[in-house]
Amino acid sequence: MSFARTLLRVKPAEQIADEGSHTQLRRTLGLVPLVALSVGATLGTGIFVVLAEAAPAAGPAVVVSFVLAGLAALCSALSYAELAGSVPVSGSAYSYTYATLGELVAWICGWCLLLEYGVSVAAVAVGWGGYLNEFLQGTVGVTIPDALSAPPGEGGVVNIPAALIVLLATFVLLRGVRESARATTITTLLKIAVLVFFVAVAITAFNSDNMTPFAPYGFAGISVGASAVFFSFIGFDAASTAGEEARNPKRDLPRAIILSLAIVTAIYVLVAFAAVGAVGVDVLSGSNASLATALRIVTGQGWASVVLAFGAVIAIASVVLTVLYGQTRILVSMSRDGLMPSMLSKVNQRAVPARNTLVVGVVVALLAAVVPLNQLAEATSIGTLVAFSLVNIGVLVLRRTRPELPRSFRTPLMPWIPLLGLALCVYLIFGLDAITWLTFAIWTAIGLAVYFGYGRRKSKLNGSAG
């Protein structure tokens, strides 16, 4: 096989699905745990942490930024849903791209997903430390010193709480998927309850003056805000990484993806509206615990912010758990295809890829300990947007090349929905900072070096290349 054809070789959807059907992972997850997995991986990431980063860029129109980012995510979610029903395996967008656009593009997609999942876990862990300090301040009157709770560049030396929550999530994952799913469902329900509590309290202090001028920087500011808060929607695809642990993946994966995105978008818009209306953009800006700060101002007492901070401490921990889970399962698929070392797909007696989980946990814990939040969030956004773009292209390609392939869900309004999803993703990519592009370029260059130095030679498709 020629060099060019090697790079473009496609792994048939039937072969991918057949390998998934003979997985060593255990099929224990129904629709509710799958929805909880996606909501748990998404809800909290942005509204607890990134709202403070996006509000200065968009002003009160940050509410519209969430809507715009949600629309981009919805188009991509519909594409995800079709591919998840057609290729129900653990590899998520990586596997879908392998079946449609070829091995090199699949590798780039998988490499982007590793950036998306790994860095988003680290970013959320950093935000978790802010709420932990808010909770400690409100209950025992002490906080962890900045030197031990903030990364270099933000007044600290090492962020110990961020590293500890990643290691704790790693321990839970090592106990098995059923135990992890139970913990995720409980913490997701708690998270929703805390955010409903926030809206109910904050809306009582709503002041229309805080909403004017609504869009001080025009649509340009809204789009910059949307690019930043798109980070908040990372995770709705987490159900697709559970394709080999779902009891009925063809039926439940598309439902879980769409339901979770609808729930998350509605809550984000409500919370952003209530927060900006209650205290204004200036108060929200520059705090890793902005919602707790807002409640303290609204109530004039500390009890409400303590309740929110406690809920955030528990709830954001579930984001760390579920997104870390997703990354380990993508690595399982890449390893099974030969593009990553085989040890990453081996499971223990609990049907857990233990070595994979330990490696991911330690690397992400180190990242969370030393890298500032804003750099993590934007690096995650660009990796996600590239992966989503490839999914939108993939669903178009698979419709054309394999029209007869069984599909348990079909993206409506073809080809316009995937094309709109692709256009919105590209638009949001160009709204990111130049330093984010540089970071992504370096990451991609490293990924290509790994692929040409290891993955291309070790690919399992070499055995059937002819």
Detail the topology: elements first, then pairings.
Blueprint: H1 3-8, H2 13-21, H3 31-42, H4 45-58, H5 62-86, H6 93-98, H7 103-139, H8 146-149, H9 160-174, H10 177-202, H11 218-229, H12 249-279, H13 281-284, H14 290-299, H15 303-336, H16 354-370, H17 373-401, H18 416-429, H19 434-458
Short synopsis of the structure:
One of its GO terms (molecular function) is amino acid transmembrane transporter activity. It is found in: Membrane. The protein has helices spanning 3-8, 13-21, 31-42, 45-58, 62-86, 93-98, 103-139, 146-149, 160-174, 177-202, 218-229, 249-279, 281-284, 290-299, 303-336, 354-370, 373-401, 416-429, 434-458.
What does this structure look like?
This protein has 466 residues and is mostly helical. It has one domain (28-404, 423-460): Amino acid/polyamine transporter I. Helix content is 71%, strand content 0%. It is built from 19 helices and no strands. Helix 7 packs across helix 16 (354-370). It starts with a helix and ends in an 8-residue tail after the last helix. The model has no long low-confidence stretch (mean pLDDT 83).
Distance between the termini: 7 Å
Principal-axes geometry comes out as globular
The CATH homology group name = Amino acid/polyamine transporter I
CATH class: Mainly Alpha
pLDDT under 50 segments (min length 5)?
Answer: none
CATH fold naming:
Amino acid/polyamine transporter I
- Helix and strand element order: HHHHHHHHHHHHHHHHHHH
Feature tags:
0% strand; mainly alpha; amino acid transmembrane transporter activity; AA/rel_permease1; Amino acid permease; membrane
